[in-house]
Structure formats: C-alpha cells, structure tokens
Specification:
Layout: E1 3-7, H1 13-24, E2 27-33, H2 37-49, E3 54-58, H3 64-78, E4 83-86, H4 101-129, E5 132-137, H5 141-144, H6 150-170, E6 175-181, H7 188-192, H8 194-203, H9 212-223, E7 232-234
Parallel strand pairs: 1-2, 1-4, 2-3, 4-5, 5-6, 6-7
Helix pairs in contact: 1-9, 3-4, 4-6
C-alpha cells in the first residue's frame, strides 16, 4: 500500500513541485486546493499519467468543516495519512498602520489557523497509526520580520511556535513535526515582486534565489526520516545584518 501525503495549497507554486516529488517517491498524493480547480485537476491528471496515485480534493484550510471533509475523503480513498505538508499560504503586503482587519484575518486565518486546523484534523488519525510526519512551511519573515509584512510575518512566526508545541505533544506517539523555511522561490507570486526579488538576491550570501526543486527534494527526504522532530530547517541563504 502506498504511503499517503496531503499537500495543502498544492495547485500552484511549491505545492505543485512537492506533489511531483512525492509522487516520484511512490506516495499517493492528495492535491489540496481552494479555488484553482482546473490547475489541481491538471496536476493530478499528469501524476496519474506517470503512474502515480493522486486525487484533487478541495478545502479552504481556514474552514474546519472543509478540512474535516477533506480528511474524511482521504480516509475513504486510502484509509490512512502518513504525511501532512502544510503549504497553503497567502501574502498581502501593507504597513502595519494600513493593514485592515480583513487583510489581517485572511492572512492569519489561512497561514496560521489553517495550519493549526489541519494538524488538529489529522492528529487523531496519526495517533491511532502510531506514526506520521507533519511538515509546516514557514518563512524567514517569521524569524526576522519584514517591513510591510506584519500579518504575514506574524502568521509564519506563529507556525514556528505551533510546530514546537505539536512536536512535544505528538512525539510520544511516534509522530514527527518539523518546519521548513524554503527561501525566496520563483513562484507566480515571487516572480511578480520585482523589488522583493532583487532584495532577496542582494541579501543572499550566494547572490542567488532559493531553488524550487531543492526545496521540494528536501521536504520529501525529510518526510521519510523517522528520527527528527521539533526542528526548523532554514533553506534560505539570506543573511539579516544586525546593526548596533
């Protein structure tokens, strides 16, 4: 029986690349999406053509009822969940004083509350299995902050704290929980932010952006490791200078 992975926000960006790499690693892949149905179904079609087991399942991760329905669907299809990658995320840059309640709630609701909701939904299943691995995608913004990203940075910082707590709670059941900071990637969002992209290259000690394939490969390899939990893996080569 194939191991089963749920990848939230898998219809585009890093999520799509993760789906491809997990498929190559012989996982049954759940391509979760919120609005991009056509893209998700195209991805699943491609995976199946390559001989991989996959399904596109909709769910807005900020809504517990939809997450629970997704999990129930996965159990109906495969009867287990081995890996959860909390990849779904949104960003909208504003100075703190110009961040509206609506923007704050949308970003926190998807990035942080969505991660919590998915962890809560699959924890009991993994506890019964006495195994599982949860990998949360965070960001260097959650460690160092970023001007104009108060909501995004807060959501990604919260994911780090959530990762540590979940790792301590679930470790006795053989469940690993880790976080990955993938760096600045050339996703659709990353390619359109010219100023941020240029700044990321400037801050990198390698003077280059992070690589999507390297990030996906790392996550898939980490997912299959059994002795690592409660860790934050920074794949970002940007250095934040500390001025006295």
């Amino acid at each position: 029986m194939n191991r089963v992975v749920i990848i939230t926000g898998a219809s585009r960006g890093l999520g799509t690349r993760l789906a491809q790499y997990f498929g190559d690693a012989q996982f049954a892949v759940v391509v979760n999406y919120n609005k991009n149905k056509d893209m998700a179904e195209d991805l699943v079609h491609g995976l199946r053509e390559e001989g991989h087991d996959a399904a596109a399942i909709p769910a807005d991760v900020s809504k517990p009822c939809e997450v629970n329905a997704m999990v129930d669907r996965v159990l109906t299809l495969w009867g287990r969940i081995d890996v959860l990658v909390n990849n779904a995320g949104v960003v909208e840059d504003h100075l703190t004083v110009r961040t509206t309640d609506k923007v704050w709630q949308r970003i926190i609701g998807t990035n942080l509350s969505g991660t919590f909701t998915c962890i809560r939904a699959i924890s009991e299943i993994m506890i019964k299995q006495a195994s599982g691995h949860i990998i949360n995608i965070s960001s260097i913004s959650g460690v160092h902050g970023q001007a104009g990203q108060a909501a995004y940075a807060a959501s990604k910082a919260g994911i780090l704290g959530l990762t540590m707590s979940a790792a301590k709670e679930l470790g006795e059941y053989g469940i690993r929980v880790n976080a990955v900071l993938p760096g600045y990637l050339l996703t659709d969002m990353g390619m359109t932010a010219d100023k941020a992209r240029e700044q990321a290259v400037k801050m990198s000690v390698l003077h280059r952006l992070s690589d999507m394939d390297e990030a996906a490969c790392f996550v898939v390899n980490l997912a299959q490791m059994t002795g690592i939990s409660g860790q934050v893996f920074n794949l970002d080569s940007r250095v934040v200078s500390c001025q006295p």
